[in-house]
Structures are given as structure tokens and as C-alpha cells.
Amino acid sequence: MKRWIFFLIFAVLVEFYAYQAVKTAFDNKWIQRIYLLISFFALAFLIYSFLKFDRNVGQTTQTLITLGLFLLIYIPKLLLTLFLLTEDAFRLFIGTYQYFTNSETSSGFLPERRRFISQVSLAIAAIPFSSLIYGILQGRYNYKVLKSTVYFDDLPAEFDGFTLLQLSDIHSGSFDNPEKIKYGIDLINEQDFDLLVFTGDLVNTHGSEMDNWVELFSSIKQPQFGKYSVLGNHDYGEYVNWPSDRDKILNFDYIKGIHPKIGFNLLLNQNVNLKKGNSEINLIGVENWGRGFKQVGDLKKASEGLSKEDFKILLSHDPSHWDLEVQNNPMNYHLTLSGHTHGMQFGIEIPGIFKWSPVQYVYKYWAGLYENTGRFLYVNRGFGYHAYPGRVGIWPEITLIELKKKGIS
Q: What span, in angstroms and rounded, lies between the C-alpha atoms of 318 and 330?
């Protein structure tokens, strides 16, 4: 109930100020009436959709449309509100000053709103509005291959130049365009890599979400050193109400069974040796472990048989695991590969110059390569999308990482 009261207060405040901006910027009554009509029906649809959300089903196409529309409407309107609230603060200051100095004004206590301010605020609000539309129509399929080279002192020489391709956060339950997904798969297959790893969140909730995509994802080529995967927080079915514990277990087993169908070797707190000539490196996969999320990842169990000196690559879905348990672990995990954050699917990135997303206020490590005393973390921005059916500035990612030994040219 409190959430609805908060939402209604928020909606009334934002709708009031957004209408003030339109009313001030446009004298035409028909424009004002059309705006009010569209706003009314949009708000009614949002309320209806939120009320109809079924925790027994989870995210659906309707949910994606609803969340997309909510952001599309209220992020621009929130900007309008901030502009006009700031203007009101100045109006109040000027009105108070004129009142106590007995200055005469023909517009009453508060000066009239300035049309210029409303026009500027509408122009600025149009930027996120158009960006969010682009994110839905094109951005969610704007796949990017991002390449990084990571140097290590103790990488076995025979693995110098070893390349691995990382995917993360497929979220197949959100997909609706086979041609676009095939384009992403084709882009993967165009890359040259020795190993493929997937760092979790195959589905949103239900294993059946992947049924129509098995054939397409099984077409990813088989690299020399195989394809390995781990689970993410969404793969455990935690975000819906199940009819029974048995149904939840059956769904979890179904999801685990999809991995071999698409050619992935699922690592459940396990490790494997990758051998090349007389050398080897070790690939470790833990179940999900994240701050505020399911914590079933067991580093100790997953690292059985390994020593501090062995070269190790860790697959762990949530980067908070690296932050809290991995980076200073005495076992010395050389490279950790994560996903989970999606970069919030919204932000600004200028490679090598600037990187920002609201998710950085929640996660210290949220996209790209990080290093601490010779130990590295790479956070993939995700192949798919979830909740908001789009991406703005933070594009879907295919990661290609090359391992290099220091001192070898």
C-alpha cells in the first residue's frame, strides 16, 4: 500500500509540472488537450498493468512493454519537474523579495512562468525520450565486440596469445526477434577464439523461455578448448511464486539441462584443467554468489585440487563476489569473469575517456576491465536485456580477451 501511495504522489507531482511546461510553452488549447488525453490513457495503462502483474508468472512481454513505457514517459517528465521546481524556487525568492520591498508587480505574488524556460526544458526532455525509443527499437540489438588484452607475469608461456570469448546475461525470455539474435550469434562465430565462456542468466525465470532458442545458440562454433558456463541469479527461479517446491526444483533442473543442449559444459562449483603442450591453466566455475542475492557459490569446493601457484580463471556471475571474496583471496585467482549488472542498460561511454551509468552507485565494478595488485576482473555488459526492453549507451556485448605473458613480444 505504501508503494502505491508513493507512486501516486510521484505521478501527481510529475504530471502537474509536466503539464505546466506544456501549457506555458504552447498557447494552443488543442495541443494541451491532446497532451492531457495521451497522459491520462498512458497512466491508466500503467496502473492497470502494474495491478495485473502476476508473481506466479513473472516477467512477460506485457511486463517489458509496461516498464519500457514507464521509463519512456517518466524520465522525461522527471526532468521537466526538476527544471520547473528550480524555476519555482526562483519565483518564490523573487516574489518574497518584492513583497518585503513593496515592489509592485502585475502578476501577483509569484512572477509568471517564463516560456523560454519551459521550451528549453521540453527540448532537453526530448533527449532521453528519443534515446529511450532508440534503445527499444535498435539499441538492444546493437551488439559490440569489445576486445581486451590482459598481461600476467606467471601465465604459462604456451598460453601466450590464448583468446577467450565471454558471453553473459542472455535472458532469453526477453527475446522477440530471431533475425536480430541470429545476427548476434553470427557476430560471435566471426571471432577467432580458443575458449568460450558464459557467465550466467540464461533465462529470466523459466527454463521454457529457452525452448525456441536452443537451435540458434547451439550453432555457436566449438572452439578448441570447449565451451563452459555457470549459473546466474535468475537461473534459480527466485523471482516468482511457484505452486510447490517441487515445481521450482524441476524448473531448475530443466535450466541446468539446457546447457549441454547448446554445447555448454556447466560448472557447478567445479574446475577443469585446460592443457596446451606441457602447460595447463585452470578454469573454475562457481554457482551464483552476490551481495543481496543468492549465495551458493563455494570457492573452496570449486578450487579443490588447485594451489596458489596454479594459473586460474574464475567464472562468477556477480562482480560483488570479486569485490568481497575473490580479489584478496590467498588462492590468487588471476582473472575473474562476471556479468550481472548489464551496465543498467543505460549510460554514457566514450572508450578510454568517460564511462558513466546509474548502476555505478550500486556496484563498484560494473563494466569492463578492473585490476588490483595483478588480479583482474572483467565485467561483461550482457548479451540480452531484462526489465527495460532496450539499451541506451551501454550496448549488448561480446567480449574477446587475449591473455599475454609479460616479457614476450
A: 20
